[in-house]
Structures are given as C-alpha cells and as structure tokens.
Write a structure and sequence with these properties.
By secondary structure, the chain is mainly α. Helices cover about 75% and strands about 5% of the residues. It folds into two domains: about 45 residues; about 250 residues, no CATH class. Strands 2-1-3 form a three-stranded antiparallel β-sheet. It is flat and about 90 Å long. The termini are far apart.
C-alpha cells in the first residue's frame, strides 16, 4: 500500500484535502469516489518538502514518547499522521512511513522526504538506530533543536533594534544626501566655494552607488549562486571551506565548541548502545555537522580498527584536540568511557552557552557603535556645507 495526497470536491461542492492509501492512483480515485469525493488531483506522497525546525522538534518529541510507550515505529507514524492538522506535515510523514514500510531506516526516510533535515540530525538518528535507542536519541535531538531555536530567537531579538536603527539611518541619510547636500553644493558654487572633502566623498559614494550599484549586486548574486552550486556538488571544496571556518576569528572558537559537544554526546550514546568503536567514531564525526571532521573521523576509525586508542584517534582530529582527548583518555583509564564523554558533553554545553551569551553581549553594542559612526559621518557631511555657506554669507 502507498499513500496518496489528494485535492477534490464533495457532493456539496466543498473543497477537501487529505491522504488516502491505495495500491495505485486509479484505486485511490475509486476509494475517494466511494466516499463521495471527486478528486481533482491525486499525487503520491514522498516528494521532498519543507520541514520547519519547530515541526521537526515536535515530531521528534512525540515520536520519542510513542516509542517509549512500546508502540512500533510504523504504528507511531500512523498516529502522528492522523493527529497532523495540516496536510503538509501529514503528507511528509506519510511518505516517511511508506519508506519505512519498504525497509528503509528512519534517518534515510526522513532525509529523502524532507530536504531541510540536516546531516547532523540524520547522523544522530542513524546512530540511535545502530545502538537500538531511537526513542532516547529522538528525545535528546528534540531538546537540542529546541535549544538551538531559542538561541536563534535570542539572536533575532538582539538584532531587531540595530536593524531598525540601520533602516531609519539609511532613510535619513538618503534624504540628506539626495536633497540637502545638492542644494548646499549649488549655493556654495554660486559663492565660489568648494564643498568640504567629507561631503565630496559622500556624494561620490552616492553617485557610484547609483551608477554601479546594480552591477555590483548582480555580480555578488552571481558569485553567491556559483559558490553554493560548487559547495553542494564538490565534496573536496565543501570540506576545504568547512576546514577554513575553524580559523575564522570568534566564529571558529564557537564552531569548535559546538562540534566537540556533538561528538562527545553522540559517542557516549553509541558506546552505551554497544556500537563498536570503529563505527562509532565515524558516526560521531558525521553527527558534528562538519564535513571536515566527518572525513577525518573516517580515517581515524580505520586507525582504531588497526589497534589505535580512541584518545589517540581524537587527538588527530584538529578541531577536537583542545580538551576532548584528555577526557577520553581519563575514561579509557577509568573504564567508564561513556560516563566521561557525558561529563565532557555537559562541560562543552556550558562553554557553548557562555560563548553565545558573550557573543550576543558584544554584538549589539558593536552594531550600535558602527551605526553611530555612520550617522555621524552623514550628519557632518550635511552640516559642513551649511556651516561653510553660513560663513560665506556673513563675510562682509
């Protein structure tokens, strides 16, 4: 049986949307006709759809609760489909359920049906499937995504006021440079005086923007499109770009903390689930969301296969070498590697929260300072010609 999404009309002429299970499109139309629905469109579910973070968080949490209650995965997906109030999420989940029925894993089914499901989420869910703890993994994943969404909200709120100031400042600057400065330039020209250097520089910037702004924007858009196209298709290019991000000022530190947090948390979960170290290193590397770390983790997994210790393998993954190898070594010597990795994950979570709080505390003042300097320059560019004109008028 397959699931089809339909749109049609009832006998009373009301529009109806929903899902129907059938062997093919013909049978789906026959079933709808038997229910008094004239189908206008019938399409097989499973095509990639948008799946927002808040929707994924809710689905992961509810699916985790159902699995903990002992409900099989397919049946749990059935219940979520029936509970979905919107056709979109229900259709997406129906496609996931059909793939699971055909033998696909939950991670692969979600990845094929929702393009917005990240590699990190797929790797974590796949790790849960390998360790037999999908319900626990889904619950932790929901908590993590919820924390990340709260972080995004904090960043958005921190940027609202500076964004408003920027917009207002640009509007005021446009009026001043477009109306007041040209008039002052004409008046000063009649007195034989030249515009101040700052005002000339601002006018030159405005004229250059009006003349070449469209060309520059088009070139930037084309460059961004080419970059993303190559980034999506070229694995080596994507890996090199990801490696470079760890060296960026400020960003690199936070990115390394986040990757270490994900690696430690996933590795602890895999060890508790009985996954061999060789596979665990590769899966934990994928779960970081970094293509460079994922590549290095595959290489170090092979080193573990040939007898290397996990602490030595982690030490050869540069973004994770600051403190994590020490935690791993202590865990190996104490015999509680999973427990020490959990401690490391909690420590990295605290460092990540502290890093984000400090970054946000610095971001808003920095933006306001930059905006203040910009507005000051615009104000001076307008006032200097006025002062020069006033002096010219007062000269006897």
């Amino acid at each position: 049986m397959k699931t089809f999404e339909y749109k049609g009309f009832t006998v009373a002429g009301q529009t109806r949307r929903g899902l129907v299970e059938a062997l093919n499109v013909k049978e789906a139309r026959e079933r709808l006709a038997a229910e008094g629905v004239l189908a206008e469109r019938v399409a097989l579910t499973g095509r990639p759809q948008a799946f927002r973070v808040e929707q994924r968080t809710m689905i992961y949490r509810e699916l985790s609760a159902l699995l903990v209650a002992g409900i099989p995965l397919v049946r749990a997906l059935d219940m979520l489909i029936q509970a979905a109030r919107q056709v979109g999420p229900g259709s997406l989940l129906a496609g996931v359920r059909d793939r699971v029925r055909e033998g696909a894993g939950l991670a692969d089914a979600l990845g094929a049906g929702a393009g917005s499901v990240t590699d990190f989420e797929r790797a974590v869910i796949q790790a849960g499937e390998r360790s037999g703890s999908v319900s626990d993994v889904l619950g932790r994943l929901a908590d993590f995504l919820e924390d990340q969404e709260q972080l995004r909200d904090r960043v958005r709120r921190a940027l609202i006021y500076p964004a408003i100031v920027v917009v207002v400042g640009l509007c005021v600057a446009g009026v001043m440079l477009g109306l007041l400065v040209p008039r002052a330039e004409a008046l000063l020209g009649s007195t034989g005086q030249a515009l101040p250097a700052l005002t000339r520089a601002m006018l030159a910037l405005v004229h250059a923007g009006a003349r070449w702004g469209g060309v520059v924007l088009a070139a930037v858009a084309a460059g961004v499109a080419l970059f993303w196209r190559r980034y999506a298709r070229d694995e080596a290019y994507r890996r090199g770009w990801d490696q470079a991000r760890f060296g960026w000022p400020l960003w690199g530190t936070g990115y390394a903390l986040l990757c270490s947090l994900r690696f430690a948390r996933t590795m602890a979960m895999l060890l508790r689930g009985g996954v061999p170290l060789v596979e665990g290193v590769a899966l934990a590397g994928r779960a970081t969301g970094s293509s460079w770390i994922a590549h290095l983790s595959l290489e170090q997994g092979e080193a573990v296969r040939h007898g290397a210790r996990l602490s030595d393998a982690v030490a050869h993954i540069p973004p994770l070498t600051e403190a994590l190898p020490g935690w791993v070594q202590v865990g190996e010597e104490s015999g509680d590697l999973a427990g020490m990795l959990d401690h490391a994950a909690r420590r990295y979570a605290e460092l990540w929260d502290r890093y984000v709080s400090r970054a946000l505390a610095l971001l808003e003042p920095a933006l306001l300072l930059a905006i203040g300097v910009f507005v000051l320059l615009i104000t001076l560019a307008v006032l200097l010609p006025v002062l020069s004109l006033s002096q010219a008028v007062n000269i006897p």
